[in-house]
Amino acid sequence: MKKIFTEFPYLSVEQSLVVFRLTLAGLFMAHAAMRFFEPNYFHDFGVFLARRSVPFAHALPYIATAIEMIGGTFLIFNKFSRWVALGFFGISAGGIIIIHATLGWFVGEWGEGGCEYSVALCVMCLLMAAVDREKQKAKALQER
Predict the structure, then answer these.
(1) For the chain, how big is the Rg over CA atoms in Å?
(2) Which residues of the chain have pLDDT under 50?
(3) CA dist 80 → 46, 75, 132 (Å)
(4) What distance in Å separates the CA atoms of residue 130 and residue 137, rounded to the nearest whole number?
């Protein structure tokens, strides 16, 4: 019984980072994929952004969707992780600024679409970028 608690999470750091990277990819890809099931999403969200004077308002939903789908695919294959994380961070931070901050902190239970989930995504992106940066540094040192 003691082993159940002392061995948690039963994965190495490296294995946990793989789960983390795949989860981050899945979260953003699922977010993007849902847009295709909402009739007029791209048009309606473009109008919403234009009302808030967001630059490239009508192109932005397509750009964000492409970043999420292509970036998620790159993360699955562990390619360009730092740069994908930067793009995902931008999408999440932009969502906080444009939408979620005005709705408060909490997403569910005690709130209606607040920014807590987006903040968690931003922190996840920072961790992903930092891990990739350190791996790239280590790789460069080995190649010397």
Answers:
(1) 18
(2) none
(3) 28, 7, 8
(4) 11
